[in-house]
Predict the structure.
Amino acid sequence: MPRDPSRVAVLAVGGWDPTGGAGLSVDTAVLRALGAHPLAVCTGLAVQTGSTFVRRDDSGADSIRAQLDAAARYPLSAVKTGMLGSREQAGVVLDWLRAHPGIPWVLDPVLESTSGGVLTDDATQLREALDRATLVTPNLSEASQLTELPVGSAQTMEQAAGALHALGATWVWLKGGHLKA
């Protein structure tokens, strides 16, 4: 149980960014600021800075499974996923989510680092899991990879959001920060 039972427990699943600019460090800080009790499952390490990607080190599937099982002992109000790394890692997390259908799932499909590295190997696996997602929050590139549609204008953003919804996501929040005006 969270130390304060009045706080909802939210599980963040994703990577660790040693610079503190992304991943679990940001997710848990935001959850804490919102008054939630953050729990975290680390899928790996993204060795990067704001401008340089060095490498990605994945956590083992057994470690991820054990972390998920430990977190499941809490009354979880929601799960938010980010970097899922390898196909095997994503499979473990997606299987766990399917085994816990009552927990709302926010899918942030972190596919690539802003500084250039691949953070999730298989967008297809995430596309096939969209029917389990309560909310999916892709940026333009991620929406394009998930829908296999070119996304670069307000019109194509609407098409991609519709396609993501048609693939099963209950809600779609398509982030257009890189959209050229």
